[in-house]
Amino acid sequence: MADDADGRVYYVISDLHIGGDEQLGEVDFLEELIAFLERLETTDEDVELLINGDAFGLWEITEIDGLAKFDVLTDRYSGLFEQLRATGASIPVTMLPGNHDHDLAAYDEYVDRLAEYNVDLVQAESVTRPVGDRTIHFEHGHQQDPNNRFEDVGNRHETPLGYYYNALVTSRAGRLSERGRYNWLKDVQAVTPTERVPRWLLSKYFYREMNPLLRYAVLPFLLLLNVSVVLAVLAGLDVAGVWAMPVEMADAVLDQLGYVGETVHLLLVVNAAVAGILLLVGIPVYFVLRDFRQTVDRFGIFETDLTVDPDEPYKEAAREVFAAQPETAIFCYGHTHRPKVIDVDGRLLVNTGTWLKRLHRRDVAVGVLPPVFYPSYQLCAVRISAETAGVTVEYEEIEKSNPSPIEVTRTERLLTLGREPSSNLPDRSIVSDTASDTGSD
């Protein structure tokens, strides 16, 4: 289907998070981003590019204050800014501030600074654009997140909870990352939701930082711990006279395996003993901790989680916009780094994802071992246009031309065999002209 001849095509990207202290200053997708901008510079379509918040990681630049952060960006990424200048000379390029680059809304000087590179900085929470006979609502999305919301947008002194996490944790990780056996700590910004950070740290310690001899020494015990817990319970039943264990049969099978059988038998005996002790200690500890959690919940000490619900606040915000502005067909946002399209009352809620590395948690297939976090990139631009059938939303995948080195060890791949994540972008979606239904191709 051909685009409406009188309609503009919008490309939307967000959450680039360019910049940060030390290792955070590395941009894995810089080549792909410049190539994307070069393509828009030479397009024959009537196009506008919207950078929908968090273009820059200004929160993560902690050793410099104010407008000097912009000088760091233009010096470090001069090729990118020159390409923005070239692309902006050919098509409109509009930028909205996010929470990580809230400074863009706090200093009026940024408008002129970015204008030098042909970027129109809009110091507002949201903008709208016409598409055919309808409208698109754009916002970064952090105002729907209680941990990153600004009560006074543009106030350079306001610092929500998310600021402290990024300034104290993420930035610090960038400065320390190279000290590891593998440069992985900088990826803390790719761990979402933030509640997963402790498990991610445990995972990286076990699979990357732990002394290899120690890791491979404890690996058999951890792999067999599930079996050992069952054996410990059965042994307890045997002692209590409730059920007799078929010890002779098991020993006969292991005897046929020779030294291997003897090793397995020894591991099972030791593991069963350890598992029995853990069960004896763990059961009362479990009840104490459960009672403590219930007490904390009664007092309401922690009223919110560290991270926002990934969908519900944005559905509510979209419903409010759709009710106040019935001509709106699309509510487009970023912030949560999850590319997705959701039908909301016949209109579309569209998340533009992120260009940062994403980490996908996968539990191991056997044993009691830390989960594995698989890395991936979902570089994409959302294309919104008016067509005969209505307003269309398409995700254009941008292939990563320079893949990162393998970051998942053989041990991790073996333990999660068959559980590797697949990273598929949403299908093409349409809001019909009547706004009564939506469809996906």
Automatic annotation (TrEMBL):
Key words of the record: Cell inner membrane, Cell membrane, Manganese, Membrane, Metal-binding, Transmembrane, Transmembrane helix
GO biological process: one example: lipid A biosynthetic process
Iron listed as a keyword: no
One Pfam assignment: Metallophos
GO cellular component: membrane
Biased composition range(s): Polar residues: 421-441
Molecular function via GO: metal ion binding; UDP-2,3-diacylglucosamine hydrolase activity
Residue span of region Disordered: 417-441
Domain Calcineurin-like phosphoesterase: 11-187
Transmembrane segments: 213-244, 264-289
Entries under PANTHER family matching the protein: BLL8164 PROTEIN, UDP-2,3-DIACYLGLUCOSAMINE HYDROLASE-RELATED
Protein name, entry field: Phosphoesterase
